[in-house]
Amino acid sequence: MYWCTDEVEPHDRFDYWREVRAKGLFGVTAELERERRGDFYGEFSLRQLSGAGLVELKASHYAVERSNSDIGYAPGDSICVYQQLGSGGWFGGMRGSDFAIANGSFATSHTDQPYRTAPLGAGGFHLRILKIPVRGLATQDKRMGELAPKTFNDPTLAPLLGACFADLGEAAADDHGTVGATSPVQTSLVQALAHLALIERGIVRPGSRLGQAALRTARLSQARRLIARYLQDPDLAPTKVADLLGVSVRHLHMLFEAAERSFSQTVTDERLKQSRRLMREAPDRLIADIAASCGFESLATYYRVFNAAYGMAPGDFRAQGPERR
């Protein structure tokens, strides 16, 4: 589902957003000074993934409250994991719990705890929210219902959360937003994000079965993203990725052993996919230049690996034309 205020007449945009989208869909109360409503803009997407809802929201500045009456009107009983993408936001409403969340940072809460929130500065809202029903989690603990909004304080978890959020978005895009999609990849990422949040809140122990499973899933996601970041380095080795990930080389290989491909196979596959993308996007670029930019140590190696994977030379692949690739 995707919706934006361009679908409504300008003078009705904020009222529609407040009554139909904010209250009807998210169970919150939206407020904005009447003189500023004519310039209001908002858009959001919602994807259902393995029982959870992934929302990305962008909107101009307004204030949001989820009051006790809102909770009574639309109870959720879900864990929310927030990723701030814009200039920053403020959460508050409970004594002693006010906090700011910076761009790229994360926060968690239970849906049925009251709060107030507003963007920091004039930039408005831009954030992702993963809403995970408690009944769908592998762990059940009454303390989850008491989680007031709180920012993440463990810096080691932030890159793991970021990698899982990015992979979940890509997995959703691959499924073209299919309603009710339940692919194993999506399920493992949703569970990992939920249990990483519960690790941070002290409800799940990192060394428990659920904690270890979440950390494995998240570290594998981050390892793959580190590979993509350093793909053009022909000397990219497990030691570098393991160091950046903060684990031993043995642990890194164990992460990939549980996946479909080993570390070296993953690096090669990513280099080949990147080279194919570049041949599509830059048809006049020299193949030798593409091979080098993807981290292949020599043109001969690139031709050999490409032919083994696809049964043709890179030049033949390029000659097929975009309609046959």
Could you please describe the fold and organization of this structure?
The protein has 325 residues and is α+β, with helices and mostly antiparallel strands. The chain folds into two domains: 2-178, Jelly Rolls; 238-324, Homeodomain-like (Arc Repressor Mutant, subunit A), CATH 1.10.10.60. The chain is built from eleven helices and twelve strands. It has helices at residues 13-26, 68-73, 158-174, 184-200, 209-229, 238-245, 249-257, 263-281, 287-293, 299-310, 314-319; strands at 2-4, 29-31, 42-49, 52-59, 63-66, 78-84, 89-92, 99-101, 106-110, 115-119, 125-133, 150-151. Strands 1-3-4-11-6-9-12 form a seven-stranded antiparallel beta sheet, sandwiched between helices. It has a five-stranded antiparallel beta sheet with strand order 2-5-10-7-8. Helix 4 packs across helix 5 (209-229). It is globular, with a radius of gyration of 23 Å. This is Helix-turn-helix transcriptional regulator. Residues 221-320 form the HTH araC/xylS-type domain. It comes from Bradyrhizobium xenonodulans.
